[in-house]
Fold this protein.
Amino acid sequence: MSYPLNENELLAQHAQTVYNLALRLTGNPADAEDLAQDALLRALKALPGFRGESQVSTWLYRITVNTWKNR
């Protein structure tokens, strides 16, 4: 079962939170923008496979941290 959240809702509800986390991780606003954009793109691509076994915020947190670690 896929999560009923669509792309627009994901971005509207969580983009600022992802950016804030990215800023804490990078310590630099420009790098945070790049990281947040990359993480949100990964999340949008993975959204159809989101099973809803965790909160969306937890799922996005892990995507953002993993994106940062892989840089």
User: Anything to note?
Assistant: The mean pLDDT is 93. The radius of gyration is 12 Å. Residues 39 and 63 are 6 Å apart (CA to CA). The helical segments are 7-26, 29-46, 56-69.
